[in-house]
């Protein structure tokens, strides 16, 4: 038996190797398949088209190996881009073939039913009402999974040596640097949550439940979606958990330079004269305006002022990789408006850094704030 583990090896190699080792312990072989787009198609100027072409080639490579019995199952480890890359494959696997998507975006459309919990979703496909082979198959699958979960032991408790962090691909440079520094200089592990709406809700739950002893909330893009009607809002309570639970937090406006929408046609008419970026075929980013950034600055300022340790690190050279001086969303006046809104809130704590969000100076500033928590966690 061989399980194909699909992931982009430039960002998820360690996780892939670890999963392969776990499968080996169960007597199952694993084959890691690198899904970096450049390995499957030539790069084009249209990133969405590149992902689509690469995804079709990945599908055409894996599907025949399923039909011949060479593969017994597959597991995809992916964020938003990786999930887009493998959507053509996952949509085409035979009914009942063992396939798993391990991703922070996997439960996004199921939020009305499972919220941000780690509930395992098992689609029955067919409806309840009359027993049949397909429904019985889904029930057997559920019983097997439940038996495994029960045998696996208890769930994680509060960890004083862990901090919660928020991340997106456009802020991963900062998060990676801070995570490494926290581990090497403070012996703290960073637990990451993708700022995709569901992830923000999960982050807030971890913080308010005090499952972590600190928070590095450096990707606040969900606040922009909440303000502007984007599709990845985490609701109005996003960012308040640390203040309410008195968990020390350092914040940064990572990702508030854009609003998330679906495909290009889903962008509301009022935004269509703005700078846009096609992140994937199903995700379109729209640049936030000066007025919106001013309001976002005030919102972040309120959260900072309400928190005992809520310092905001404000980089002056871009809030994501898209709004650096060479990026498509470079608009210094919009970023300055955020700082203006932040500074108008009484009690807001902030520090300006002459660097981009993913720069070393920004990472050092974030780490310095974390080091000041030593006596309180």
Euclidean distance between termini CA atoms: 46 Å
- Categorize the overall geometry: globular
- Provide the number of structural domains: 2
Mean pLDDT across all amino acids: 91
| Biggest sheet strand line-up | 6-5-7-8-12-13
Can you describe this structure?
The chain starts with a strand and ends in a 6-residue tail after the last helix. The strands form three sheets. Strands 6-5-7-8-12-13 form a six-stranded parallel beta sheet, sandwiched between helices. A four-stranded parallel beta sheet has the order 2-1-3-4, with helices on both faces. It is 41% helix and 18% strand. It contains twelve helices and 13 strands. α2 packs parallel to α3 (80-92), α6 packs across α12 and α10 (290-306) runs parallel beside α11. It folds into two domains: 2-151, 3-Layer(aba) Sandwich (Rossmann fold); 162-371, Rossmann fold. The protein has 377 residues and is α/β, with parallel strands linked by helices. α1 (9-25) links the parallel β1 (2-7) and β2 (29-34).
